[in-house]
Give the backbone structure.
Amino acid sequence: MNSFTTLTALAASLPEAQIDTDVIFPARFLLLPGKAGLGSKLFSERRAQGGFVLDTPPWDKAQIMVTGPDFGTGSSRENAVWALADFGIRCVIGPGIGEIFHANCFRNGILPIILAGAPLARVQAEAEGARAVTIDLPAQHIRLSDGSEITFDIEPHRKRALVEGLDEIGVILKDELAAIEAFEARHRRANPWLFLDDGQLACFDDIGDKP
Amino acid sequence: MGQDASRRANQGGRTLYDKVWDAHVVRSYDDGTDLIYIDRHLVHEISSPQAFSGLDMADRPLRRPNAHLAVADHAVPTHSRHLPLPPGQAARQVERLIGNTRKHGIRYIPMNDPRHGIVHVIGPELGFTLPGATLVCGDSHTSTHGAFGALAFGIGSSECECVFATQTLRLRRQKRMRVTVKGALKPGVAVKDVMLALIARIGVGGGVGHAIEFAGPAISAMAMEGRMTLCNMAIEAGARVGMIAPDKVTYDWVFARPLAPQGDNEAAARYAWRALASDADAVFDREVTLDASEIAPQVSWGTTPAETLPVTATIPDPASESDPVRRARMASSLAYMGLRPGMALRDIAIDHVFIGSCTNGRLDDLRGAARIVEGRRVAPGVSAIVVPGSASVRLAAEAEGLHRVFTEAGFEWRAAGCSMCVAMNGDSLKPGERCASTSNRNFEGRQGQGGRTHLMSPEMAAAAAITGRMTDVREMMR
């Protein structure tokens, strides 16, 4: 995964409430293979109406999005995050972010920041004024154009993964494999019914090549 | 957030959620997160390809093939199923799923198999979903399985890849919310109405960061189908997890299923599952109480599930909303939906009716709709389809003659799949068309580009099919 340390960029303001992942990435594009190029489908319907912020210079170069309440709720489709990343968005800032979308961001090098009230309004003003802001992840603050800083919270392990560009699966396999194996053995003894064996699953084995 | 609640939970009584969580902690980290073991994973054709290719690119083996079960549900057509899939993206996606499952030793259920259906319908039907288990799927409606006392939640494709490779996920324990439903449902009011009324009350972000436990006399009185409808839509209130403590109703369902524990395992499981309830002194971070007897049939009018009102209401006026963000949101919802403030919901005419989905595509749902439809005709100009949630629901409904009730009234009787709930399988609305739908999301474009969705119960959707407009089903009850 790409690492995220500091980012100085324009932010695009999208204050509308409850932008769900169907609006971010419509279902009819879910069959497209791969992740590259998905940015062209980002907010497809809104952009087709014309005048959408991400198509309006200078915000067509924005790498940060400042959102309204409940951004990214709904479907778990990671394609919404892949499309944002493909478009060039590296950071999403809002007062409330859908939980699965929030988790998906971290897996794709996008930093989601929960911010509300006056601090959010200040970042939003920078966005609307087309003044670049700096996200400093190691220091956990957003620096505005007047030099003032707004701090934000982030899970320590998420921060480390983003800053170091870690592959989380690789980390788990490297650090925790023995713990997983030990747990699995204990768990199987205590709850043997949770571990289906080939005999129980044999009823699915005679299916052949049918679609 | 979680640390205080965890400490508190460790001192006093524990919630159902905490008990299942605690039983799956592989390792606890200093920052308050835990590495959680995942017992079961349902795999479908839309969210899995990138997870499999990630695994292959890193040349990692899949850790435990028997923990996964795969089926194609989102993109499959609900008609002409005796024919091969038409060539195209959907067919390629299904072929990729078959290839990936074969390569990694995962069992796959074909489209014309009697066990085929929507992931969240067949998991419980097969007994793949069990009380006390952790279960994930690359689909937000995985909360459905919490109806059995499982800790079940939707994940993204990258998290699916992590489960394939490690059988774990690193997560922070959520806050706990209990939704207590007292009283009894009035005639004509369905479980869907309870859930829509709850979402209207707490909002689409009301449950974010929380695991919801549903409890109370109205929940105890519900059949498993109703409990699944409730937990299914926990995500529409923002909560990744919805759960209900297992009881006799649960056990009667589970132990009749092919993959359920048998013999000695059945006895041991029954004994272990007795502990799966929140302790009397368990602490919840938030409590919400609803009185089922006060709930009327609900209809959504906007483009979030929280924009829902009783069918007897009128469309609200954005001008009366003082908060500018909320006012703008209401105005854009009304513009998209083509509705005006002050209109009676019952004056809204519809073009389509969709009865089905992982929310309301089970046998009880079809029975409820059939009771309204029986002896009546679909209104002229309305196109109405019934899409059972699984092949097994379809067969059971046919054994009761429900398919004849629907087809004689003018409904189409389809094969199982996600159909018009996700509109990526050929079943969709055209721009401007309006649908009375038993699905879970009325988002813009959810049922097709420019399509307009009104969420409601199967009974209410059936009533709308007959009259051609939003209708208070209580007026049609016999």
